Amino acid sequence: MLLSIDVRMTYRFSRPNTVFLALEAAQTEGQVIVDQHIDLGAAQVDRITGDGYVGERIWAQVPGYEMVLFYRATVDVTRPAVQLDGLEAMPLHRLPADVAPYLRPSRYCQSDKFFAFVAKRFGDVTGGRKIAAIRDWIESNLTYVPGASDADTNVLETFAGREGVCRDYAHLFCTMARAAKIPARMVAAYSPDVYPPDFHAVTQVWLDDAWHLVDATGMCAADSLAVIAVGRDAYDIAFMDSEVPAEFVAQGVSVVRV
Question: What pTM was estimated for this model as a whole?
Fold first, then answer.
């Protein structure tokens, strides 16, 4: 599936600033970057490899008081839709070194608080069937409400309030999967099926010796997602971190099937 991605954003700063960006589609398993271009004006750009060796992050030194960014890409998504039934969880002692950290609690995903709930609610199934049951429970029990959460909302608040946006759904999914002893990491992605159009947060779970994409909101399937970045939670996959406070001026994300 070919996806055409167009991102435009403008932010103002109180002084010349350095920002850390994660918004380019990654050259990674299951997708091919056909072409892409990013324009940051006069900013000086340096690149580093993303977390989990997925994609790249950009350090951009903005010489003025405003950042105007344009990003365009065409991505060929080649991964199939995920069939969770039949996928097995790996024994803990066989987890690779780069996967094991995604079993641990993180800033927004306090998975250690959910051991009892997950064991009681999903203890009768294993592997991919357990992940599917967790996904279905979250989709059925949470209500998607734009503005219901903010950058400080953690998974305990989401679980209690039973509402949120994609970030909150993914946090709860990561949390419950980790509580079930299945590694899970947060994923920033693009998809034409996101409404309203924006950067989207989903989850990857480690089953049968591979990462598999799952969207607890029910909006997107793995074969329509272009991965940008991965990390422990939303803190790691934010599209922009700024050295000084950033004033929002304008932002638009467009993703369409070609």
Answer: 0.96
